[in-house]
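Action item from last meeting closed. Structure (209 res):
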């Protein structure tokens, strides 16, 4: 014999109550059907005695019919009460399910709150913000340093070298033209030599502009 039988849960109790209420309703329905059959028999007997002129017998059966109909009314009332209790029992079961779901939800939320410490999250976000700002600052410094390196005087020297090379090529070209020019043109003051100088000065001006 088990002296430590586990107590039924609230949900199990609710189901057991629902089964018992359904059984009680069925029993009342059977009693009601039996009373209706008896009611019809009494009505037929009363009619028969009335035709025979048996007034005393009719009165006795009429009293029985009244009591039977009162009992049938009680069955209707009991059935209505059982239906009401069944609805209440089902509503109680629904409320138990809702309460259980809310309890589970509250427990889950509590576990989440334990894992997600708001103060720790705030500290982590602030650390991320500072690290991100530091990374942006470092990236900006590296970019500025690279720009400074790219803008050093070596570029200017290379540019001057290219300009000098172009000027040398122009000078060689002009010298070649002057060497091939007629001697009369070279002896005339202000003619060929002056034109060559003007051409050289014009090209120098274009390079400087």
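Sequence:
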């Amino acid at each position: 014999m088990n002296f430590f039988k586990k107590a039924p849960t609230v949900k199990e109790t609710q189901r057991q109550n629902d089964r018992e209420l359904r059984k009680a309703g069925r029993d009342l329905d059977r009693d009601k059907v039996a009373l209706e059959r008896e009611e019809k028999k009494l009505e037929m007997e009363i009619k028969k005695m009335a035709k025979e002129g048996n007034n005393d017998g009719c009165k006795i059966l009429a009293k029985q019919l009244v009591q039977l109909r009162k009992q049938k009314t009680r069955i209707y009332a009991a059935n209505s009460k059982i239906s009401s209790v069944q609805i209440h029992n089902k509503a109680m079961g629904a409320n138990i399910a809702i309460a259980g779901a809310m309890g589970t939800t509250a427990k889950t939320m509590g576990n989440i709150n334990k894992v997600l410490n708001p103060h720790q999250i705030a500290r982590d976000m602030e650390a991320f913000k500072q690290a991100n700002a530091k990374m942006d600052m470092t990236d900006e410094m590296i970019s500025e340093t690279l720009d400074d390196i790219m803008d050093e005087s070596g570029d200017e020297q290379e540019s001057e070298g290219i300009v000098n090379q172009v000027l040398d090529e122009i000078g060689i070209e002009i010298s070649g033209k002057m060497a091939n020019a007629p001697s009369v043109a070279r002896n005339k003051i202000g003619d060929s030599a002056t034109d060559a100088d003007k051409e050289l000065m014009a090209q120098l001006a274009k390079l400087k502009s």
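Note appended to the action item: The helical segments are 10-52, 55-115, 118-150, 153-180, 183-187, 192-208.
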